[in-house]
Amino acid sequence: MSKSFKVILSIVMLAVLLLSSASSAFAARERSITLIGAEFEQGKGVVFTFKVNGEFDSYGGTAIIAGQEFTLSCNFKDNGDLGCTMNKGGGKYAGLPALITLNGYSFSVTIRNPNYCYNVYDIVYDEEYEGYFFMEDGSHCIANPGTWDNAFYRDNQLYNFTWIWWDSYDDDYEEAFLHFPL
Questions:
Q1: pLDDT exceeds cutoff 60 at 27
Q2: 3-state SS, one letter per residue, for 103-153
Q3: Shortest CA distance to 41 belongs to which of 139, 124, 108?
Q4: Parallel, antiparallel, or unpaired for β 116-126 and 105-110?
């Protein structure tokens, strides 16, 4: 073999080697997961939101908060983002740092607490049953946890923060805003 043929063969082999390693690097970039949010949502608990690029067979992971490990359950939202909730826990983890692992990707984030939301009830008298009952009238969100001095007006009616006991023989109660008719 001639010397020039060996040089050309070496260059071709080097080019093939470089292109094959570059194509696998580009293929690895086609799949990615990016954490875009972590917050407490009333009625759902702690929700971690991700942007997903590429195809994955399934989504699974964990969240470690305050030394406890939680399993994540994930579903795609209507806007295309992936939302993952913890199997346990709620508002008590808001404001705490979390270590998230999802499909081999790791993230560190502080769980945001946008608002504290509570159900709103009216006390309504039912003439047929000759008694009062609670009728749900939406929800109301405030910046901090509810206290006895929290109140708001809706349709010229005052709603005060309180506890509603659903079962007088149990600790089954709910923090809510309630309109007391005069």
A1: no
A2: CCEEEEEECECCCEEEEEEEEEEECCCCEEEEEEEEEEEECCCCCCCCEEE
A3: 139
A4: unpaired
